[in-house]
Design goal:
binds 2-oxoglutaric acid; alpha+beta; binds manganese (II) ion; 236 residues
Length: 236
């Protein structure tokens, strides 16, 4: 029995070596990171970033903010948003009286700083086969700030995923359907959680109902930072 299967085992061992040693697609599938929970198709990776990685990202984002300070955007209708924003990368999202769009420069006229490597790390680990993002929108929520239900649809190609990193105080994230209105579901996003919206969830309406002050001591003065990595421009 042993020797009979030994001969066969020798052959299948080499097949297995080929499958897991040489076939990149199978290796990626075999090793892919699985979400903790899915909500309306969006993937939530709870506790994905260790406290050390979170601290490194915050330090790197503080350096970005020194070059590209947070600002309070207004909508085309003239309503001031409660979140303050800025960006890193080749393109940054802005909103003003002319509407929503991506721009190569901060409103001060300087180019957005590059996206720090520490921020790219979760993208590379969760989405290894996807080209690198060219935009990182940085949202800062002080207590009381929120973000209304919306779709992310200002990017040139809406098929690419969006990956969002939560840092600091907890937030109640709400997600509905691709059509406006109807039932929604919510999940609490805590510091270090990563959320990915792709495939059927890519165009789902979503928003931040509220943040929960005092739930994290990552940020010296409290509040919540959210980083969304996007492929905003055209990719060949
Ligand atoms: O703060 C969040 O978790 C969501 C942010 C968001 O949806 C956006 O910036 O488009
Ligand atoms: Mn969004």
């Amino acid at each position: 029995m042993r020797s009979a299967s030994g001969g066969k085992a020798g052959k299948s061992d080499s097949v297995r070596k080929h499958e897991f040693g040489c076939n990149t697609i199978q290796r990626q599938q075999h090793m892919s990171i699985q979400p903790t929970v899915r909500i309306r198709g969006a993937e939530v990776y709870k506790g994905f970033l260790s406290p050390e990685r979170q601290q490194k990202i915050v330090a790197d984002i503080r350096a970005v903010l020194r070059k590209a300070p947070l600002f309070s955007p207004v909508t085309a209708g003239g309503r001031r948003m409660s979140v303050r924003i800025t960006s890193a990368g080749a393109l940054g999202w802005i909103s003003d009286r002319k509407g929503y769009r991506y721009e190569p420069c901060h409103p001060s006229g300087t180019l957005w700083p590059p996206i720090p490597e520490s921020v790219l790390d979760p993208w590379c680990r969760i989405l290894p086969a996807t080209p690198l993002p060219d935009s990182c929108l940085i949202n800062f929520y002080a207590p009381g700030a929120r973000m209304g239900m919306h779709q992310d649809r200002d990017e040139a190609d809406l098929r690419w995923p969006i990956l969002s990193v939560s840092l600091g105080d907890d937030a109640v994230f709400r997600i509905g359907r691709v059509q406006r209105g109807g039932a929604t579901q919510s999940v609490v996003l805590s510091s270090g959680d990563v959320l990915v919206m792709r495939d059927e969830a890519r165009l789902a309406y979503h928003g931040i109902e509220r943040i929960c002050p005092g739930t994290s001591c990552l940020l010296r003065n409290g509040g919540r930072l959210n980083l969304t990595l996007r492929i905003a421009g055209n990719r060949a």
